Amino acid sequence: MPDYVQADEQKVRQTLMNLASNAIKFTDTGSISFALKAIQSNDTEVSLAFSVKDTGIGIDPEKQRHVFEEFKQENSDTSKHYGGTGLGLAICAKMVEMMGGKIELQSKKGSGSQFSFTLTFTRDNHEVNSEESLRIAYISQKPSSLLINELQRFGCNLTLLSGVDGELLNLSTNTIVISDDAHHIAQLQKAGALYRLVLLRDNKHGQESSDIKVDGYLTAPLLVTG
Fold it and tell me: Fewer CB within 10 Å, N side or C side of the chain?
């Protein structure tokens, strides 16, 4: 898998966001998974296969060919129950087509759906030096090895801390602070820290506080496969 490619970031991001939103809307129980793999490459180009899979309500076979049409949903009951305009998947299909690919659907009523597409990108050999790297401070008594590996894989300048201490307060103000403890976030805000703050939420225990304001959330458990 290449570290960098030349791509239309906005179109790729919007396509994946729309597919994720669609999966979340129609999945009450179970899981939603993302997959990315390189299926063909040479010295200058690489073809990447993207997929978003859910365990939601699924789609009847006779309805599947219409889901990428504008203002189409499986039926009126679906529209009434789940809402939406029926434009999300049509936009996905159009953006993937504009990038030279085609979106495909595999689904079975009651057993979920998988949307997938393959795009070919030009490799980018740009190397990020330590001064350009995104600075992350991760505060946790029990840090997630998965999150650490992913941050390091993306070349982040990572500092691991077990609590709010002098070392953290001496970091550059452009550091992003991630913590799984709302009390750490509250401490930083009380100290007047200017960092961008991200709370790692645990859905199982519902840890959250209305008294703190953060710049973003990550939701655990995190699962990466493949």
Answer: C
- Side-chain half-sphere exposure of 114, counting CA atoms within 13 A: 11
Give me the half-sphere count of Cα atoms (radius 13 Å) on the Cβ side of residue 128.
14
One-character DSSP codes across 116-182: EEEEEEEE------TTTSPEEEEE-SS--HHHHHHHHHTT-EEEEESSS-HHHHTS-TTPEEEES-H
> Is pTM, for the whole model, over 0.90?
no
The CA distances from residue 226 to 1, 98, 179, in Å, are 12, 28, 26
8 Å CB contact between 139 and 117: no
Q: What is the CB neighbour count within 10 angstroms for residue 214?
A: 18
**Residue for token digits 């961008």?**
196
Query: 3-state class of 207 per DSSP?
Result: coil
pLDDT in tens, 156-212: 889 999 888 777 767 777 889 999 988 888 888 887 878 889 998 875 555 555 567
